[in-house]
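hiii so my PI (J.) wants the whole complex modelled not just the main chain, which honestly fair. so below is everything: three entries, each one labled with what it is. i double checked the lines twice but i was tired so who knows lol
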Amino acid sequence: MNYVDIIATSTALGLIVLAGGAYGVLYAVGMTQSSRSLERASYACYAAQLLLVLAVCLASPLDVPWKLFIAVSGMTYGFIPPATWRLLEKLHHDGVR
Amino acid sequence: MLVVLVILTIDSLQATRAGGRQVPNYDVINQHIGYAASESRGFEVPVIGPAEPLFGTTNSLQEATALMDRGKLVIQSRACMDCHTFFGNGAYYAPDLTKAWLDPAWSQIWMPMTGAKTREEAMLEFLMHPDQYPTWTRRMPDLHLSHAEAQAVVAYLKWMSAVDTNGFPAHFGRISTQN
Amino acid sequence: MYRSQKLALRYFAAAIALFGVMTAAGLLSAYYYIDASLLYNVFDFHMAKILHINTLVIWLLMGFIGAVYWFLPKELGREVVGIWLAELLFYVFCVAVAIVAVVFIFVQYGRADQFSMWFINQGRKYVEAPRWAAAGIVVVVLTFVYNVTATAWQARKMTGLLGVLILDLVPLSVLYLDAFPQITNMSHDLYWWWWLVHMWVEATWEVLIGCLMAWSLMELMGTSRRIVESWLYIEVMLVLGTGILGLGHHYFWIGTPQYWLTIGGFFSALEPLPLLGMVVHAVYDAGAHHMKTSNRPAFYWVLAEAFGNFIGAGVWGFMMTLPQINMYSHGTQWTVSHGHFAFWGAYGCGVIAIMYLVLQQTRGAAEHFDSRAWKWSFGLLNLGLVGMVGGLLVAGITQAIYERAQGGSTLQAFVVASESHWFHSGMYARLFFGMVFAIGYLVLVYDLLAIGRRAAAAAPARMAPA
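here's the output for the full assembly
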């Protein structure tokens, strides 16, 4: 890999996880505050994450299997905040019964 | 997960034992060690060449093993890993030593500096008196290595350079920012 | 207060003292990069680093042990079994740490023989302490495990949380046995060494801090046991599910077979996913209580733990974990950047949170536990840490480019990278922010000594019952 590829790919990978984190945080805050705008902002972060995943798949020198793996995990990130939220709601609901 | 890890551990320990498929036996120090690209693997791999005795001596496997045992004890007793890295593990104040045996600095800098006739003699002299042969503002301290201890470390570094590390470090000595 | 809880306070005091030694040794280590002639041939970089990383491990372990000694009697409704032995061993532990440190400072190293291994320096990173001290740690840890299990046994009581903790303590203790062997073959040595280091910080310690955070949340937020335990089980499964084979990301380049590049890279890349769940959980808990809490410092340090863990371990780790990148980042200051961020986020913040939680109870300040100083120390410590991490990242990427990608990793390449102005800037920044961190530490000490005392003095002092 040349130095541009190293910096670009590693930065993209870090930003993918960071965007995923922003999605998770904004989603959770939006749900707590019942704020549609925050929820929308969270989806925007997820969209940004998917764009970064796409960029890695199209432009990075990683092999195809790795690109496939990153694409699949990018899609998995989408489920985690809503699924975690539903699970937490269920746990709390069951817990206070 | 644990079951898979156990199975892979058994295989990895086999592969990495001295004489295993990734790690040569200790008497490889009697031979020339190189590092060249492998088309099938897609990266550089160690190349074991013709006879090249160390310090003019061809060591039996037993002698070579004794050298390695002492060399590793030196490396631990002096905490080399807390300045240097080995296979990239350790501390980052001083250079990585994975391929130190192959470093051009020995012939280009230290052989002239020490007046040694061979690479290993230069390494030996440096290890025993590093403060007398500085090349940079960051200097290696004098860790009071005896002659035998320094010889053992040189042997250890030669053996280490022959370990198959899946291409790490990439293109060792074959590219340079000076080019 | 139970005797076990009084012991917890002593462990916390020792932990904070060692945190200070760690910080001082860290500043010293950082300074060598600026002035390499510092204490040359008197006290060199490797000894400063040894002090830095060994006190790191010990201060965190003492924090964990203290936290368990605090929560355990409340969990089981009785005094801890064998507490007299634990009390005695605490002092033995402290004396042993002091002796090891004195030998590191004044003797530093010995000859290449077993005497050095037993009494001076074993020279394996994080476990440099001589074998006699490692044996001492085994005794302390085994006593700790005995205290926990025997108390549960005698109380005829087991909770889910305690069960997870006890199950976790077994591998945690057994893994420490790697602090003893002296193996000639570097590949074998590192293979097992990584079992200890990775399976501590990326597996058993994660489960342990998970248990401690679960106890903390019950006290801090009044969250029900059923909720924290259910969440704990899920987290533990996810963390171990990714972390056990994530161990493989240390097996790319040490002479181990090539299949580790795929296996290690794959599982390691999954490791951030459970951390994302933890972040969502943290926000959920904060939101459920509308950010209101009677213990603001503990609350904010718990949040710092969740976010710091995610960013330091998750984001920073993911940047460098794929083998194609790691080939260049391996063995550079990039690793140091990740290490500092991850240790701080995953463990440092959590231990500090627990200390504040405990102090609220010992100072009898149930209603209003706050100060100005904690905000300053929180800000300075986190700003300092993030600044250090940033400086190290710049230096590390510089090395990855100049030394590895372009330089061919020779001594010449190492020097060229280390002399570049990017590297120098990164190291100056690291030292500067290290000083910010150190000031934050001093404010933390002041605050831990002072917080809650005025409130307690104003109202009749009362110790919160178990």
